[in-house]
Design a protein that fits this description.
- The chain is of the alpha/beta class.
- β10, α8 and β11 form a beta-alpha-beta unit.
- The chain starts with 9 loop residues before the first strand and ends with a helix.
- The strands form three sheets. The chain has a six-stranded mixed β-sheet, with helices on both faces.
- α2 crosses α12, α4 packs parallel to α5 and α8 crosses α10.
- It binds pyridoxal-5'-phosphate and zinc ion.
- Zinc ion binds next to loops.
- The site of pyridoxal-5'-phosphate (PLP) has 18 residues, from α4, α8 and α12.
């Protein structure tokens, strides 16, 4: 692509739990030694002029120095990255804070923030010669995975959770994946099954367990800081399902800080739905890991609905605490109001994506959001992802009018200018 661009500075994988290291050029999901999550490490001293090199290109791959794709590998792309950071002064005033912007990741190729992660993870697997892969999904991960597998010419199998709506499932099959609906009683059963399958190594398994995928989530942080003149916001608010998005963004901010590109770190705030909030329960109780709690079928925030979290949500809890942030929940009414209010700002989102904005609206009252805050809410998926919720939340049509100049003129005369 760009011959002069410096290559990846990733060096190896390290296990969160037993500290063993592994080479990068192999397909692993969890640590073969202990089953822990693997983290990609970098030699940051080899990163050269990150901001200058990044400024010469557009899209996610301009950050390749901080992504673990080997130099000889081909980048699969559908145009992911560089979503807009939209400043919303009216919303900031209503929330009672200095500044509020939304990072609109609904504008990715398949309509959700999953695309950065799957562009990278599928490129990586494809480079290592994989020709088939699987993931499980409430819808968005599946559509993204299917699209990048289609791009790579790989066979995709997507196992969908019960909350996956028909439109999302159709998007997955549209991109050529084979879809099966999962039967289970708790999200924890899914984790156990897919972890076992991944360990057997038959197919590449791409999701939060995959140590490559969430590296691309760091790019959200790079983009936010670059768009803000290399300054981090005071607060970054992120919806939390598995926690990969929040964790990845936090890692991205810490890298920019270590590289001296930003001089302070944001507080990270994780948001879930009140009826399904294992993260918030563990955070409030001061625990290191989440338990099983809540009812995924009881919320319209389908993309973050789970009654358990992968690996007990340990990484996400750690990121939130390290950053001095909080985990909070918002109720169904607050989520619907946030979808409607964002709509009035010109931003169309699915309910799960609105929880970050909803949390900011409540943050001053709840006490964790100082008045001086400059906040960014990451909105993770577009409105059309959940047509039924959109139709239930959006205001109704006013009435009927004849296509006739007089009738139209009378109607428009009643509208104030
Ligand atoms: C996947 C998803 C989330 C949750 O992201 P995690 O990385 O699993 O925490 C939030 N919002 C939308 C729209 C999603 O598709
Ligand atoms: Zn280990």
């Amino acid at each position: 692509m760009n011959g002069s661009r410096p290559t990846s500075t990733a060096t190896h994988l390290r296990c969160d739990d037993c500290d063993q290291t592994r080479e990068l050029g192999e397909l692993v999901t969890v640590c073969p030694n202990c089953g822990g999550l693997l983290e990609t490490e970098y030699d940051l001293s080899r990163v050269v002029d990150l901001a200058d090199h990044a400024a010469r290109e557009r899209g996610m791959w301009r950050w390749r120095q901080l992504l673990p794709l080997p130099p000889t590998a081909t980048e699969l792309t559908l145009g992911e990255g560089d979503s807009p950071l939209v400043s919303l002064p009216r919303s900031a005033r209503r929330a009672g804070i200095a500044a509020l912007a939304v990072k609109n990741d609904g504008l990715m190729p398949t309509g959700s923030f999953k695309d950065r992660g799957f562009a990278l993870a599928v490129s990586f697997a494809h480079h290592l010669g994989e020709r088939a892969g699987f993931t499980y999904s409430s819808g968005n991960a599946g559509a993204s995975f299917a699209a990048y597998c289609a791009r790579a010419g790989m066979a995709a199998t997507v196992l969908v959770e019960s909350v996956a709506n028909d439109a999302k499932v159709a998007l997955i099959t549209l991109h050529g994946a084979e879809v099966h609906r999962l039967e289970y009683d708790s999200s924890a059963e899914i984790f156990t099954a897919v972890e076992a399958l991944a360990r057997q190594g038959h197919h590449t398994y791409v999701n939060f367990l995959n140590p490559i995928r969430h590296e691309a989530m760091k790019v959200t942080a790079y983009e936010i800081c670059e768009s803000s003149g290399w300054q981090a916001p005071d607060v970054v608010v992120h919806p939390v399902g598995t926690g990969g998005g929040l964790w990845g963004a936090w890692k991205g901010f810490t890298e920019l800080h270590a590289l001296g590109l930003i001089d302070r770190l944001p507080r990270m705030v994780g948001v879930q739905s009140t009826v399904c909030a294992p993260l918030v329960e563990a955070f409030d109780a001061g625990r290191e890991a989440t338990g099983r709690t809540g009812d995924p079928s009881a919320t319209i925030a389908q993309s973050i609905a789970g009654d358990a979290m992968i690996h007990g949500g340990r990484r996400v809890l750690r990121a939130i605490r390290e950053s001095g942030g909080v985990a909070v929940s918002v109720d169904e009414q607050e989520i619907a109001d946030a979808v409607r209010d964002l709509g009035r700002e010109g931003i169309g989102v699915e309910p799960s994506a609105a929880v970050s904005y909803a949390a900011l609206r409540a943050g001053r009252r709840a006490g964790w959001l100082p008045e001086s805050s400059r906040a960014v809410a990451v909105v993770t998926g577009t409105s059309l992802k959940q047509p039924a919720a959109l139709q239930a939340i959006a205001p109704p049509v006013v009435g009927r009018v004849r296509a006739d100049a007089d009738a139209l003129s009378a109607l428009l005369a009643g509208r104030s200018r």
